[in-house]
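Exam revision sheet. Question 4 asks you to relate a sequence to its structure. Input first:
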Amino acid sequence: MRHGTTTLFAALEVATGKVTDACYPKHRHQEFLRFLKKVAAAYSGADLHVVCDNCATHKHPQVKAWLARNPRVTLHFTPTSGSWLNMVEIFFGIITRQAIRRSTFRSVKDLVIAIGAFIDGWNERCQPFTWTKTAEELLPHCKPGKRTSFARH
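Answer key, structure tokens:
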């Protein structure tokens, strides 16, 4: 039985594997912008390169206006069917398999608590993902809609 949903926004620091996260009830530009501000505050003063998919939420005029006022934050968009290029997608697969799938949550609040606990534990022992294939090995497998992992943790 489903008791509701949450939207998990997550940013993966590729150098360390650390995840900055936030759960919101909806996935709109307002929530994405709130999350961007959280990530920017967590890494104040640093230039940030955020990899995103091509969701309209990420390209909303209010998001673009905020980015124009905050030039140290740059969004980079993966090509269609190229989500595997974004290493946070590997993390999403891990949290789905290890903390969410086949679990029962009595409420959205319980789900959010479980997500937070998993991410806290992850960040205590995090390490970067490592690409295990060369570009020459990857390119023949890059077919639209095919989800394959080419990194290990």
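Marking note for examiners. The chain has one domain: 7-152.
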